[in-house]
Amino acid sequence: MKKRHTLAVPRPFRYLWATPASAIGLLLALPLWLAGGRAQRVNGVLEVAAPAWRPLARLPFCAITLGHVVVGISPAVLAHWRQHEHIHVRQYERWGGLLLLAYPVASLWLWLRGRRPYVDNPFEREARGETRQRARRG
């Protein structure tokens, strides 16, 4: 997937374009925060760490990004996956709410073709590749 630079677009427009996904992220994050989770803003992204609940360990993911909201199962998980999840934030800034459809459609297409829906998903591949590049640069 070709990377497009969103920095040329003023920040308020990037937030507005990602608003549909961010609204869903807020709906997910708010109950977790009210139940004792921790919230912080990092580089313009709201990160919410869920309270320590055992059932969360059964989720198929440890962090999820919806627009400018990242929800993780713990502060340590958020810190570990921050770069990766913030790349997904940039994807929402490019795709807007359309990413809510594009991501699962890409996974379904891969699955139907006998590929790995998560590992081979172009959005995940981009996030992994960018994270590796940033780690190499230090």
Spatial extent as radius of gyration: 15 Å
Q: Assess the beta-strand content as a share of residues.
A: 5-15%
The major beta sheet can be summarized as: 4 strands, mixed
Query: What is the domain tally?
Result: 1
Helix content: 40-55%
- The overall strand count is 4
The quaternary organization reads as single chain
Stretches where pLDDT is under 50 for at least 5 consecutive residues are none
Widest sheet: strand ordering: 1-2-4-3
Explained architecture:
The protein has 138 residues and is of the alpha+beta class. Helices cover 54% and strands 13% of the residues. It has a four-stranded mixed β-sheet with strand order 1-2-4-3, with helices on both faces. The longest helix has 21 residues, at 75-95. The mean pLDDT is 91.
Defining traits:
single chain; 138 residues; alpha+beta; 4-stranded mixed beta sheet; 5 helices; 4 strands; globular
